[in-house]
Design a protein that fits this description.
- Helix content is 52%, strand content 16%.
- The protein has 15 helices and 12 strands.
């Protein structure tokens, strides 16, 4: 029998049993949709992690005082979760805060500590300090005072964080030294206060009722894993913030950058030794960007593997469904198989016919599954889940679906091809 004739028989059998084909391939539909979404979610997760860390130097190490008995609300700016992205070199520094060691001495990291680290710890290319607090802000188009996160940072903060300016410039060393009342707005903060980024430039905002001149606006960074973004923060010179906003009762985060990312662990050990000389009874949180990035990627890989396992189970169930239906189909069409063999069809022809039926049902199920995945994507995105659909994912869903249907359809097809013509013709 020619291949074209086999295809005609397959088409005839499938077109006469449309509802059975759709019901049979339901498992494949779910499996194909799951595979496509698994790939899309996994890709989206990787993209999100990359975006969150795009402004974070891979060699950044954050040091902050670790205290469970904080007596002030100020934190190191790393407490904002910058370690998960968005240009927060102080990320992962914990809540920090005013703390005491076992001798009840106040532990506050200072610029002298930062200088000690750069002097006595080999392999550090740069260092900065930062802290954050919350203050009332007024001005621009705000109808009333609104609370914003205020970040006190050193002049080199933007460079170390790879921040880009949408307009204006960042602080200079003199601004910090002379405690100038300048500020740099996050992208969203500028839009909320002044209506647009460009309207914010060279204007004045009032932080705790003191005027600050806006000398720049940072380029939009995007979301971060902690849910707090520098886009909505207001930056002021470090010493300015200490003088006018927090006073000396603040627990900052020191961030250093390792020259060689392979030496991060060694540098962390040196940092602990240097700090223990100054604060023998204090405990500090020391975390590096690479560890956070790896942890985030590992979480994403674990989720992806879990979803792949789900998809595999669904495919197996769908394949078993196809196998069962084909067994029933062989039973119902025993006479037809006997006639085909009687007119000269070989075992190969019968095997190929039933395999093609299984493959076509799987293909139809896979296509429907891909369409379902496209429809489900907006729903997943409404829950703030990043989904990156791709042609590769769709192709892989089709391939997996067809392979599953073909594998599970082989045994029923083989059984059909082994039927004895005389017995098949006499089957009622």
């Amino acid at each position: 029998m020619r291949l074209s004739e086999i295809f005609k028989l397959v088409w005839l059998n499938l077109s006469q049993n449309k509802s059975k084909v759709l019901l049979t391939s339901f498992g494949i539909v779910v499996g194909a949709a799951t595979i496509m979404l698994v790939i899309a979610i996994g890709t989206g997760g990787r993209e999100e992690v990359a975006e969150q860390f795009k402004n974070l130097n891979a060699g950044a190490i954050d040091i902050s005082y670790d205290s469970s008995s904080s007596s002030t609300s100020q934190t190191g700016f790393g407490g904002m979760g910058g370690g998960m992205g968005g240009g927060m070199p102080g990320g992962g520094g914990g809540m920090g805060g005013m703390g005491q060691n076992s001798n009840q001495d106040t532990v506050t990291l200072t610029a002298d500590d930062m200088e000690d680290l750069t002097t006595f710890v080999p392999g550090i290319s740069d260092a900065t300090m930062s802290f954050s607090t919350s203050s009332s802000v007024d001005g621009g188009e705000l109808d009333e005072s609104t609370t914003y996160t205020i970040a006190g940072v050193k002049y080199n903060y933007a460079t170390m964080s790879n921040l880009e300016m949408a307009i204006g410039e960042f602080f200079s060393e003199d601004d910090d030294t002379y405690k100038n009342k300048y500020c740099v707005l996050g992208y969203e903060a500028a839009k909320e206060i002044f209506g647009s980024v460009y309207d914010a430039y060279d204007e004045t905002v009032y932080i705790d009722d003191r005027p600050y001149k806006v000398i720049g606006v940072i380029e939009e960074i995007g979301s971060v894993a902690s849910g707090i973004s520098p886009d909505s923060a207001i930056f002021v010179p470090y010493e300015t913030g200490i003088k006018y906003l927090t006073g000396s009762k603040v627990s900052p985060t020191i961030t250093v950058v390792a020259e060689d990312t392979d030496e991060v662990d060694t540098i962390k050990t040196y940092i602990e030794q240097v700090l223990s000389e100054s604060y023998p009874n204090a405990e500090f949180t020391i975390s590096d960007a690479g560890t956070k990035m790896e942890a985030a990627n590992q979480s994403n890989r674990t989720l992806t593997l879990l979803l792949i396992a789900m998809a595999a189970i669904v495919f197996v169930v769908g394949g078993i469904g196809i196998m069962n239906v084909l067994f029933v189909s062989v039973k119902e069409r025993t006479n037809e198989i006997g006639i085909l063999k009687a007119i000269g069809c070989s075992r190969k022809d019968i095997l190929l016919e039933f395999l093609l039926e299984a493959s076509c049902m799987s293909l139809i199920g896979s296509i429907v599954g891909i369409i379902c995945a496209l429809g489900i994507t907006p729903i997943l995105e409404s829950f703030s889940m990043r989904v990156s659909l791709s042609v590769g994912g769709a192709v892989l869903s089709l391939v997996f679906g067809v392979i599953t249907g073909t594998l599970f359809g082989f045994y029923p097809a083989y059984k059909a091809s082994r039927l004895i013509p005389v017995v098949a013709l006499n089957q009622e």
